[in-house]
Amino acid sequence: MQENQTKNNRAIGIFDSGFGGLTVMSAISKLLPKENLIYFGDSAHVPYGSKSKKVVTEFSTDISKFLVKKNVKMIVIACNTASAYSLKTLKKVIKVPIIGVIEAGSVVALQNTKNKKVGVIGTEGTVKSNAYAKEIKKHNKKINCFSKACPLFVPLVEEGWNSGKITEDIISVYLKELVDKKIDTIILGCTHYPLLKDTIKKVIGKNINIIDSATAVATAVKNLLEKNNLLKEKGKGRYEFYVSDDPEKFKKLGSKFFNNKINKVTKVEL
Amino acid sequence: MQENQTKNNRAIGIFDSGFGGLTVMSAISKLLPKENLIYFGDSAHVPYGSKSKKVVTEFSTDISKFLVKKNVKMIVIACNTASAYSLKTLKKVIKVPIIGVIEAGSVVALQNTKNKKVGVIGTEGTVKSNAYAKEIKKHNKKINCFSKACPLFVPLVEEGWNSGKITEDIISVYLKELVDKKIDTIILGCTHYPLLKDTIKKVIGKNINIIDSATAVATAVKNLLEKNNLLKEKGKGRYEFYVSDDPEKFKKLGSKFFNNKINKVTKVEL
Prior knowledge:
The structure is a homodimer.
Chain A: H1 2-8, E1 12-16, H2 22-31, E2 37-41, H3 53-69, E3 74-77, H4 80-93, E4 98-100, H5 101-112, E5 117-122, H6 124-129, H7 131-139, E6 144-149, H8 153-158, H9 165-180, E7 185-188, H10 197-204, E8 209-212, H11 213-227, E9 239-243, H12 247-254, E10 265-267
Parallel strand pairs in A: 1-2, 1-3, 2-9, 3-4, 5-6, 5-7, 7-8, 9-10
Helix pairs in contact in A: 2-11, 3-4, 5-7, 5-11, 9-10
């Protein structure tokens, strides 16, 4: 029992190309407040969305190996592009359980759609990979998926322009073709997008379900830990943050994405 | 003489974090069509604009060493962020003449302003470095410089949204405070921005001089080569392209920025 708790006290490793994955960390910390969490933001290589599968998989592998050295009990890929491109490879190379945001978001979308028309928005990489559609079709071949890359959403969020006329206009341009397809559910397939959720709702209306993959993946993490008897049972979780570029900037801007204060950030070279 | 021409036939090395520097390469190829040019686009690390001085200088040093191995006769830093952060360090480490876009753009702005109020727009890194203002003040302490980071301009250009209502609105938000300061000259302190030049002119009016640092740096390259007796005198220039990520994407999108077709792009690991 004692031995089991020592094993279970190990942290959950979470990584993303930058800040976006902090929305996933937020959701996990709310659902599982006892868990210790270690976050890695690859700020020297951000963004992943426009980069190749090969290079994103190289970055993801290096980070996962770093997290394993930190003795994590599982890894969450809190980045849609890295999940789309690298999950398969990482599952072969990394010895702890590893989950991505895409499977989790797909399951929740399947539970929500009634007319079987699902929209997916994300970075160029996520959309090009077609990963959400593949995942959804695995569960139900009758679902129609329509996807659209929205490359301006990440810089808009990083600029803090989460609402306002310009942001609404940009959302309207990107999402028009999905709305025209009569989708009843849309997956926010990028961990930055939850910060645009209210404005997206304002533009596309209340009748379309908006699936936030951050919340979905938190539930998936809980299920996986329960199933493997790995839940930490006592005490409040501790949080550690690592980045590959300027820790001060991460500390300052990270608070937009994370619901807690970020006290200490350490720069590491992989 | 023969020996001199062999020496002078060596290429000019040009580098940037991605595609933007191709606007500089375009300007150089127009002004100096006989010169051989080697371009390096650091697409695995793009963008530099939001990254730290330390990490940008590391990237720039690795690239410059690669270009020196390619036997270039001089290096042009075709990226404002890298020029602002790394030129000093590179001048110490690299043995061939090296120039950045900032000095060149500053000189032309000085020649153009009448009311001594100059605006500078660029990435977060370029603006934070205050490099244009420092350079301009070196020549004339009486000039007032007003700068503004415009982080959405690069993604707008990369999305191909060079004109239209949304782009005009974004330009208007960013440039309002500079226009209010009654600047008569504005430096486009980012190599992506020349593609927005017409729309910027439409928004801020014809009375403000727009200084495109790509054209300015081409003139500076010509002057430097003439001064050092390094001009190539015969034949048409040949162009080589290297990148640190997907060469196919570079080939396809690079043509937006470069006035010639890009035939062959080679991926290298530094």
